[in-house]
Amino acid sequence: MKRVVFNQKGGVGKSSITCNLAAISAARGAKTLVVDLDVQGNSSHYLGYEPDQPGNGSVADFLDQRSGFFSVEKAPAEFVHATPFENLYLLPASPKLAHIEKDLESRYKIYKLRDALVELAKDYEEIYIDTPPNLNFYSKSALIAAEELLIPFDCDSFSLQALHLLLENVFELKSDHNQALEVGGIVVNQYQGQARLPRQLIEAMQGEQLPIYNTFLPASVKMKESHSLRKPLPHMAARHKLTLQFELLHDDVMEGRHLRVEDEPVEQEPAEQSA
């Protein structure tokens, strides 16, 4: 399955959600690939990639290849790196993405990622794509390449406005370029169940019958520690509450479990255990 994690609003936890869901898939035995299309490279950094390390290159190097009479493009698999975590692989980002975007657009390379992931899906059971926080060439490429969309949502009023715009853009792109793309669900992140606004926003989305995954992710300093150590939560704090929430969310994603309209928007509470 090829899943894209996308929201046009920044700071909603795209990279954290991408990498931790991928880490759980890998830890459970699925050969898993993360594709990082964000020039900031947060997912690449989180998974231990160093831009100056020798070896395979980046997703930018793959996309920017030119073939001709005397040259043949390298296969996408040649740009994939192993991470320090078993079964988890990375097609990393690069600052070069910012410099080649207009050229890739002018060369009509919008479908190149789609074709690459069709090939890579023969070797990887799960593929997660991290995206820039705007609807640009790379996020469009990811939406065209993916089968399912996960939308991080951080419970502020501006996020709800952005969500409506995002869905409009996604459905237009789906109609024009990728009929197979489905909205898997909305991932409620940094949820504060005691605050009024988050509950009101969840209720409003339920009223619109939007697909919200059952499990809400709370704000936690543990995520910042995980970023600092460059270890996804399953490898840093396997029994911490936030890790257990991600485990539940992963099950929601795999099984398509959503809140029903009549359900109370309450954060799930697995038993808290120290790391």
List its salient traits.
single chain; 275 residues; alpha/beta; Rossmann fold; seven-stranded mixed β-sheet; 11 helices; 7 strands; 41% helix; globular; disordered C terminus
Mean pLDDT: 92
Radius of gyration: 18 Å
Please provide the ordered H/E string of secondary-structure elements. EHEHHEEHHEHEHEHHHH
Number of strands: 7
Segments where pLDDT lies below 50 for 5+ residues?
Answer: 268-275
Instruction: Order the strands across the largest sheet as they lie in space.
Output: 3-4-2-5-1-6-7
Structural class computed from helices and strand pairing: alpha/beta
Termini distance? 31 Å
Number of domains: 1
CATH class: Alpha Beta
> Which bin fits the share of residues in helices?
40-55%
**What fraction of residues sit in β-strands?**
5-15%
Biggest beta sheet attributes: 7 strands, mixed
CATH superfamily: P-loop containing nucleotide triphosphate hydrolases
CATH architecture: 3-Layer(aba) Sandwich
Detail the topology: elements first, then pairings.
Elements: E1 2-5, H1 14-27, E2 32-36, H2 42-46, H3 59-63, E3 81-82, E4 88-91, H4 96-106, H5 112-120, E5 126-130, H6 137-145, E6 148-153, H7 157-177, E7 182-188, H8 196-207, H9 221-229, H10 233-236, H11 241-255
Parallel strand pairs: 1-5, 1-6, 2-4, 2-5, 6-7
Antiparallel strand pairs: 3-4
Quickly describe the structure.
This protein has 275 residues and is α/β, with parallel strands linked by helices. The protein contains eleven helices and seven strands.
Description:
- The protein has helices at 14-27, 42-46, 59-63, 96-106, 112-120, 137-145, 157-177, 196-207, 221-229, 233-236, 241-255; strands at 2-5, 32-36, 81-82, 88-91, 126-130, 148-153, 182-188.
- The chain has 275 residues and is of the alpha/beta class.
- It has one domain (10-255): Rossmann fold (3-Layer(aba) Sandwich).
- Strands 3-4-2-5-1-6-7 form a seven-stranded mixed β-sheet, with helices on both faces.
- Strand 6, helix 7 (157-177) and strand 7 (182-188) form a beta-alpha-beta unit.
- Helix 1 crosses helix 11 and helix 5 (112-120) crosses helix 6.
